[in-house]
Amino acid sequence: MKRTIDGFFKPNQKSAPPTEQSTEEPSKHETYPLSVAQFPASISDALGFAPATDGRLIDDRPDLDIVYYQPYIPKEIEKELFQFLRCELFFYRVQYNIKRGPVETQINTPRFTTVFGVDESSYFSPQGHLLDAVTKRPIPKDRYKCKPRPIPGCLDQLRKITERTTDQKFNFCLVNYYANGNDSISYHSDDERFLGSNPAIASFSLGARRDFLMKHKPPNSNQKGAIDSEKPLKLPLASGDMLVMRGPTQSNWLHSIPKRKGKDSDRGRINITFRRAMVRGGTENYYTYNVGSGGVFKWSKERQEMVAWTAGS
Ligand SMILES: O=C(O)CCC(=O)C(=O)O
């Protein structure tokens, strides 16, 4: 059913109606533990109206260049889109070890993560085969230690819309799921060399409102930490909002989603970022830290939480 513009401007619904199933084949791939459904027509059609508002430029601080859409996703589908992605995607709770001097510490990533895509040296054929970007032939078997995954159809639809809005090209989609206010991401910048200089990153928020804090890196320093005394810039990201961080932002600013108490802290939030990795190192890095080597988690409608998933469950 195609929606009309009149239908689209009907008053917002408080809660999402049950999602209709798409008639299109779900996305499947040998690297996926489960298939991923396509967007139902209700989401697909309304996405044609995105962005729902004009972006606001935030560039009033040194080295900051952000476009903030409040919202980007049409209000009519923001809840349904959140529920659809939480149900359809599979996630990981990644653990890894870091060595500080002689001491090895285990890091437990404090949120659920998943990732799709491959860097510029390769691409997926429509049949899902990884091909070399130059020769257009299957990649050598030893190109990657990880197993890159194609972006499933639903997220790829959002990627294409985002590319048109931002006039940028993206080959990676990272998804975070913050189950509640205890899940977080600490101050960091997405300034890895594999993203090239001045990378543009488009970042979507769905579900619970969470604060996005930003601090300028200490001037003339390679230090990772921010200046502690500085008051952070706070963007109260709401469901459907989208941020484009671009230009000198990543090389000069840190960002974080701190833990949250009180209002909205019992609700889940999805963050989707689209990025462009230029070289193989980016692919290895993203799969190591967003898929890892542990088990799969899937949303349970009965239990209303992410549960460990095993084949056949
Ligand atoms: O959840 C967010 O809005 C931020 C996510 C983020 O900073 C990241 O994935 O690098």
UniProtKB/TrEMBL annotation:
SUPFAM superfamilies: Clavaminate synthase-like (SSF51197). One of its GO terms (biological process) is DNA alkylation repair. PROSITE patterns: FE2OG_OXY. Residues 169-278 form the Fe2OG dioxygenase domain. Substrate binds at D191. 2-oxoglutarate binds at N176, Y178, H188, H255, R269, T273, R275. Residues 12-21 have a biased composition (Polar residues). It holds the Pfam family 2OG-FeII_Oxy_2. Residues 1-30 are annotated as: Disordered. GO terms for molecular function: broad specificity oxidative DNA demethylase activity; cytosine C-5 DNA demethylase activity; ferrous iron binding. PANTHER family: ALPHA-KETOGLUTARATE-DEPENDENT DIOXYGENASE ALKB HOMOLOG 2, DNA OXIDATIVE DEMETHYLASE ALKBH2. This is DNA repair family protein. It comes from Viridothelium virens.
